[in-house]
Specification:
With 96 residues, this protein is mainly alpha-helical. It contains three helices and no strands. Helix 2 packs antiparallel against helix 3. It is elongated, with a radius of gyration of 24 Å.
Length: 96
């Protein structure tokens, strides 16, 4: 019985520590300008890299198959979808 009580106390202590860390992280507003600029830069690369890669692969496929711009257009649109989704996930993730 005493062992169960000590486990419960350890669990309670761990939960309180976790909650306190979350509160501290949420109220800590000491993010400087360079960190904000870095986040904006990462966001830009996250958005633009997939469409550029899709366009590059699409142009290569169009050249190889002689299909005009079909692959380029399709992969460019797919790249924008992937970039938008990736940016959305990155922005909704809490960063330290």
């Amino acid at each position: 019985m005493n062992d169960d009580q000590s486990r419960a106390d350890e669990m309670d202590t761990a939960i309180r520590r976790h909650i306190q860390r979350q509160k501290t992280g949420e109220t800590d507003g000491s993010v400087n300008v360079s960190q904000h600029l870095a986040r904006i830069g990462v966001l830009g690369w996250t958005i633009i890299t997939p469409p550029l890669a899709g366009l590059l692969v699409g142009r290569w496929l169009d050249h190889r198959t002689g299909s005009g711009v079909a692959f380029s257009a399709a992969l460019l649109l797919a790249g924008f979808a992937v970039g938008g989704w990736s940016a959305w996930k990155w922005m909704s993730h809490p960063h330290a």
